[in-house]
Design goal:
Blueprint: E1 3-8, E2 14-21, E3 25-31, E4 34-41, E5 44-55, E6 59-60, H1 64-71, E7 83-95, E8 98-107, E9 110-125, E10 131-142, E11 161-175
Length: 176
């Protein structure tokens, strides 16, 4: 069967994350500049291969001071580590529409395996004749696994920034 290439449609995709702040509220952020691609056998996404690259300098949380801190050596150290990348090692069907996506995430100069949940939304043609495929990807990582260890203690106990980062990713691909 012929290999099919899929490119992300960035205008209909988003790479988001949430981190607990002060142990009781979530701060949301996203990456504004990224690329993603998939490779499938025909239009069948079973065992598909995925690759992703995000520009660390495009991070936004809606607060310029916080964004600046995230780009600094305390967190992402964007000057020395300007990209985060993901390369899949497996895309396994659990049941109709639900998959497990495993792969290697490189962030802050460290590469570690991650396992994410993927919901396949389906394939459809848009009004201009383009074949599109949609995915919702979720998961959790511990930022300390990638050397992102900055924190501050709270006088009430606990810490300012959670170690757990929740990922919320929406990807729409265009068949090439």
């Amino acid at each position: 069967m012929a290999t099919t290439k899929w490119a992300v449609d960035p205008t209909h995709s988003e790479i988001g994350f949430k981190v607990k702040h002060m142990m009781f509220t979530n701060v949301s952020g996203s990456f504004g500049k990224f690329t993603a691609e998939a490779e499938t056998d025909g239009d069948n996404f079973d065992n598909a291969k995925f690759a992703f690259s995000g520009d660390i300098n495009s991070i936004t949380t809606g607060n310029a001071d916080r964004d600046g801190h995230l780009l600094s050596a305390d967190f992402f150290d964007a000057e020395h580590h300007p990209k985060l990348t993901f390369e899949s090692t497996a895309f396994t069907k659990k049941n109709e529409g639900d998959y497990t996506l495993t792969g290697n995430l490189t962030l802050h100069g460290e590469t570690r395996p991650v396992t994410l949940e993927a919901e396949f939304g389906g394939i459809a043609k848009d009004p201009w004749g383009n074949t599109k495929a949609g995915f919702t990807i979720t998961g959790k990582i511990n930022r300390k696994d990638w050397g992102l260890t900055w924190n501050a203690a709270l006088e009430t106990g606990g810490v300012l920034v959670s170690e757990e980062v929740k990922l919320a990713i929406e990807l729409q691909f265009v068949k090439q």
